[in-house]
Structures
1.
Amino acid sequence: METPVETTRERLLNVAEQRFGEGGYEGTSLRAITVAAAANIAAVNYHFGSKEALLRAAVARAMAPVNTERRRRLDQLEAGGAPTPEELIRAFIEPGLELVLRRGERGAVVARFIGRIAFDPSRRIRELYAAESDPIESRYLAALQRALPQASPDAVAFGYMNMLGLLALHQSQALSPTPGAAGVANTANPVNTEDPGKLAENLVAFLVAAFDRGLRA
Amino acid sequence: METPVETTRERLLNVAEQRFGEGGYEGTSLRAITVAAAANIAAVNYHFGSKEALLRAAVARAMAPVNTERRRRLDQLEAGGAPTPEELIRAFIEPGLELVLRRGERGAVVARFIGRIAFDPSRRIRELYAAESDPIESRYLAALQRALPQASPDAVAFGYMNMLGLLALHQSQALSPTPGAAGVANTANPVNTEDPGKLAENLVAFLVAAFDRGLRA
DNA sequence: CTCCATTTCAAACGACCGTTTGAACTATGC
DNA sequence: GCATAGTTCAAACGGTCGTTTGAAATGGAG
């Protein structure tokens, strides 16, 4: 069989995903990325133009399948009548956790990358991410509003932001602290580390309860 | 009245809070801090020893009143019998939001600083923060477990981590995106920007519902 | 005033940063 | 074969990074 070897461009994107996800944008140097990708320093500016353009390309590539799947689910739900809050929450959470975690090692890397960038300390980086996930946001907000007519638009937006934030934190694995360090419940490891599906179920249940009964009028 | 002028050490801590909260640890240089604090570059290493030690000192100073208030509330609740989940959640959230937001401009700066550092991209920084908020963590977990006997320890820990994460995100104002940019609900600004008390109420209600009915057995 | 510990200062250290350059290499079409 | 477009390369660019140095300023105690 012929092995379609990864191009330099692809290797740069893969390593960028991993390193940016581990150390953040500011905390990761182009030299660290290019060395790990077995590429020359100048390759970044040749293929992408700048460090930030590399990040933008990596975000776009990582988010594309998630956005596609979310759109597909939303289309499907709305075609079938009035979706419940749980269906909508599931359609948002699961593509973020499963589609990306359910692929062995690389999936976890992509998830951590997305989760970290979404709440990077730099406003510039956060907006860069927001622009990528923006298109479907208003659709979800409108659908949630219809599914929760008793909640005010502000309350729905509040719930949506909480959902978005919690998803990002779980994606980035920031809520599953290091085993050896001083963290939460180091006596018993949380449920979710082995099975991303179980984490998705737990998170959906948590959010459904909060949306159904935790939004102030 | 005599004006006890701020010492260089205090000015450095104040500016560090602000800049680290805005740009993150890696994204903020000591030169930017010392210039804004009208101090010499060498002052950081003289008063603290290193950049990381400056951060550690800032975290400790910022967290001290929050930890004290949380301990006080927990003592009071446990002295009065078996606290409800809502009382426990309130005792955790409110010190984080009010005690720190309800102080004009500087309170918001401190809140953003804490919220950002708690989920900094660098694991090293996150652990530095975790060590500071660790002491009361096990007390809260145990109290929550007693208040929610039907939930498994894993589920309680899961809920606690979600609470901690959501609090940090709201503290850092990462969930109240920039007004002009492409973000959630730029048609109507969320409720919470003007009144931190209202945000606390919304967040507590959200979490109480999630804890009461959203934790899987 | 002298002494001494504390604090501030300008200047420099080596290291690393993102980016650019221009030549060398590679592969494909003619 | 040669020409050509695409890609990779070592090397260097000017800047900024955290940290260190040693001297100058400061200010209370004797």
Note: Residues 179-189 of chain A have pLDDT under 50 and may be disordered.
2.
Amino acid sequence: MDVVSPDLNSILPDEIMDTEAMAMEEDPPAETPAPSSHSAPEPAQVPMETEVPEIVSLCPATTPTQKTEALTTLTATDSTLCSITTGTQLVVTSSSSAGPKMATGTATLTTTQPSSPVVGQSVAKLSAPFTPTSPANHQLIINKVAADGKSPSTAALKQERQKLLVTGLSKLGQPIVLALPNTWSKPATSQGTGGDVKPQPAQFKVVSAGAKPVIGVQAVSSANQLLGSSSPLQAQQLKTVQITKKPPVSTAGPMITKLIITKALNNKGLTSQATVTPVVTGRVLTQSTPVTPPRTITIGETISTTPQSLSSSSNSSKVAISPLKSPSKVTVAAQPPNSPQKPMAVPLNVALGQQILTVQQTTSTSPAKAGSSQSTAQTVKPVQTVAVGGVNTPQFKTIIPLATPPNVQQIQVPGSRFHYVRLVTATTGNTVQTANTSTTTNPTTIQPAKPMVMNTAAVRMSVPLVSAQTVKQVVPKPMTSSAQVVSSSQTQQRLIMPAAPLPQIQPNLTNLPPGTVLAPAAGSGNMGYAVLPAQYVTQLQQSTFVTLASSSGFSTSSSIQTQARLPLNGLSPVETTSRPRKPCNCTKSQCLKLYCDCFANGEFCNNCNCVNCFNNLDHESDRLKAIKACLDRNPVAFKPKIGKGKEGESERRHSKGCNCKKSGCLKNYCECYEAKIMCSSICKCVGCKNFEESPERKTLMHLADAAEVRVQQQTAAKTKLSSQISDLLTRTTPAISSGGGKLPYTFVTKEVAEATCDCLLEQARKSERYNQPQVMAERLILEEFGHCLRRIISSAAKAKSDCSINC
DNA sequence: GAGTTTGAAACT
DNA sequence: CAGTTTCAAACTC
């Protein structure tokens, strides 16, 4: 995961580099320098001022063809941008509140492979110099508009009519430099073609050298926010990703930097773009001082921004820091995607000022989650796409070319003309982000398959753009709203609630126990709804379907049907359902505290050994109160502690970190060890031995592996034996069933006996016919009987012999 | 299986 | 936020 081209790294502050290194640790493949597939020119071209220039790195390899004066550098590399379809304009506007002036610059992207509407790589160059002006608002807007659209402010389009318009300056007044990669591959197909875009994974990194720390990043979908991109085409709707840079409260100066990336799609069906709806906003975790450790940027809704996201791990106070623990390390929380696809979390590092903001992008979006109801098998494409848009504004399409191949992927749904944007933010702590979906439309039906993003322990934001055909609305309720459908992409939480506000106790809906479903509670009094653990719902679904009544008119059936088997704590649904949960033994907590694993996992106690258990439907009211109490103490109490990262368990992270003192984090007392993950910088453990290079840990791992191998071997042997026995029984069943005994006797069937008797009778008749004496007749009959027996025995022996060979 | 140890959760 | 208490699981014998 390369956020910034290696060259740029050299000019970055140490803090940034450190952070990046950290980030790379989490992403093994990223440890190598930025993918060099795209020849990346050198950093030398990036002007190094007294301060680190603001850099928006869209592609790893970039050569800012323009300008050295720029303090703000926009670097676009790689395939992500390539996803920009033909005839798109990119408008970048940077303004600073410090100055009233608005600088405008125009860059034209030229493509080497122009005409091919379908594919081909095109090289885009930034040919137009920026016109430095005084900063205004520090706002960067990258606007992509339809190819055929005419942008008043943009220069002539090239063959493919891709334009890059850059306006504005950095807060320091330096011009913005937008560097596009030499090889800017286009999407396989233009929008109109509807083909798949095959962008290479790209990373997006924004480095801001501004003196003011960045506080927030916002992704906003707003047509109004398009600056200078208004083209006649604009029947198109736009999706805008807005990154806002705000100064910390403590800092003087209202410096605000926004990065808005918008892309207008050619949607003929589009009637109006007037809709200005901030659909998704992103948060940026920032630090007040450049010296401080880098923070993680969380992209989410602005309204959902909480202090939590701003908090960083305080490692400095730790007595003992494990090797993995570095104060500057940015921990990327991982999420357990349960999609069939391999979860890929791609951290995007955005460095603003001297801070590095890490945005983790995951491709975990399952096709279904990607949102489109289109039946076509959605394939997650390795193209970084940042799409933010209202559900009701399917036409909006935003692509942020983020990307470094290994990390960033763009989600492309075949057959869908819309890009799906997934923004995942890695945070050092438990940053919890919720992305609220603000839609201007009235909710009618819930479309579970197109969840708005919901993040979990690993902050993740994914906002699939819903195609017009399939758009059903997502309830535009604020977090506090009583009625909303929240589906966490992987974390297991899906709530279905009535539109009518719940009286009295109303827990934080987004943080209820995993899989919790609100259903009409039989005995919950006026509460009206019972909080049902997903597992319980699953059980009920086996027999009696839980009635998830909703007066709101939501169509909940589909959601309900899918919610029951949501992953839990990083475990796949299969794991959660098949894994027999250990019965609890609570005695004093009434199983209504987080001490109780059942309760903590959002499950009802079942076959437990607990005493005075209230964790059941009979005490739903108490249970609901307890849930609320837990949520009051910790809003994310029921969220999975272990998030899954990109690949493998090693990528998983404990959202909170352990606090072990004596166990060395090598016993199950340690939550990290128990989860089979290594401790990270967010842990506060002392004498930690649960790190990568720990010999103790390796020893344990080897032992565990050996034990596991033995178990597997035993299991395999047992399986084989069982199979053989079963096969043998199958083979011998006919004989056994017919004869019911040892092989020779199994041949004495009724038919054989009758035949034998016939032979004996025939011999008797023959003797009678020849008037033989009775003695002789008896003798002959006995001899015939002997012959029959010999034949039977011979046949049996032969059959046994054959069986032995076959078996 | 009883007793001890441990660290998260809860509490102050 | 830090220190203490409570709690249940993990561990030991």
Note: Residues 741-806 of chain A form one domain.
3.
Amino acid sequence: MATPIISINDLHAHVGQTVTLQAWLYDKTPKGKLIFLQARDGTGRCQCVMFKGDFDEATFEAAKALPQESSLTITGVVKADPRAPGVPGGFELGVKEIAIVQTSAEYPITPKEHGIEFLMDNRHLWIRSARQWALLRVRATVMRAIRSWLDGRGFLEMSTPILTPSAAEGTTNLFEVGYFDDKAYLAQTGQLYNEANIFAFGRVYCFGPTFRAEKSKTRRHLTEFWMVEPEIAFCDLDQLLEIEEQFVSHIVQTVLRENANELKTLDRDVSKLAHIAPPFPRITYDDAVAKLIEMQAGLRAGTPVLRHDGKPLEGIEDPALLDITWGMDFGAPHETALTQLCAKPVFVTGFPTAIKAFYMEPYPGRPEVCKSADLLAPEGYGEIIGGSERISDPARLEERIREHGLPMDPYRWYVDLRKYGSVPHSGFGLGVERTVTWICGTEHIREASPFPRLINRMYP
RNA sequence: UCCUCGAUAGCUCAAUGGUAGAGCAACCGGCUGUUAACCGGUAGGUUACAGGUUCGAGCCCUGUUCGAGGAGCCA
């Protein structure tokens, strides 16, 4: 009689029943007349137990010799047993039949420790490992939460081009590709096109891969990453920040609700995420610079400014890393220091106009700062959102394009948008992998992408 | 582009300038509750590459390649 084929994450609903799993062997522990097989099927992992007396000699010996990652169908009775390891765990299969689909070749990734180069060379296999599996499941939840939140609030998903004729903010960081007899560049943002889209649809977002040819070699950078960019008509910077904090909170809370097992696998301290809810604190660039100067002085004087939880700052080995004067952009150490002052993500608003993109609206009466806001994730994870209110006046926009030394022709259509019913409008871009890295509490962004592209890595 | 560190068995790592070693994986044997099981045994090496110093180099020197971490820039 055929038994039902079920997923490991559905085991709890089949206690006492005979079911079939289609799975791979994650690990095994043979113990003489008893074998523990740990099976994974993409939805979870569970222990399957074989007793020698239940099988003929050949079947039992074959099972005992199975290499890691062999593919199997296993039929048995589901039992609740608190001793059973796995994800979600607590259930095991008392094996009645086992069929080997393929006996795996010797599998390179053992349950022991490995170096990062080896693991990256074997990324196509590494994604099967518990930690990577959990991370990428969280990533999928993050992407789903992004879409469902925006779709539920009147945002229309609009695809923006990946092949673009020129840069929004200079071409040095762009990948150049041949385009018949011409050149094209891989998009580093869909924002400008989204600004056209809002005049047709009101609120839109684009969601796709983004490319940066930066020669960055840090734990925060990929050359190809996914970014969601909402853009909203009739929206100023203050309204934008409210949207951002609700959006980010929704993403975090969705992962907490749906990926508890994954976060446990990752050993993530969820108490650092549970309280993520609006409102997020706001600090102006002016105040942030003053705070950084104070923090640097504190470190040097031996009377350091403490973190939000009362502990000393971490990750600032040398106070000189906090060097800053008004007008400078923040580096990673500045972000690391600032984010430790707060348990929630923090908005830094009003950056100097000179260090930001040409399209950002200056503050009335104070044109040296603009209506921009970065959102910095806690625990030193850094910038996950960059956003701003865009210039709505055509003359001012043209002026800013000239000041940046950009050619006017490619931006003709962009200026055009301000001539036909211009309105205050704002938008932001959220980096998916950085968000996943923060939520998962992971060291390096490369683990937040299934097949990360890094400055020195395109294989596999 | 710059700074720092690294490269030894399939993997993770040891080895005062003096015979190249362990754990895991593989292979053989044992074990009915393991959680990276454990116990016994077998096999496994062009010490990244090129040159130099030395009686003798995995180790010291020079260069190259590759990798890791960080800076700048950014999400």
Note: The longest helix of chain A spans residues 130-151.
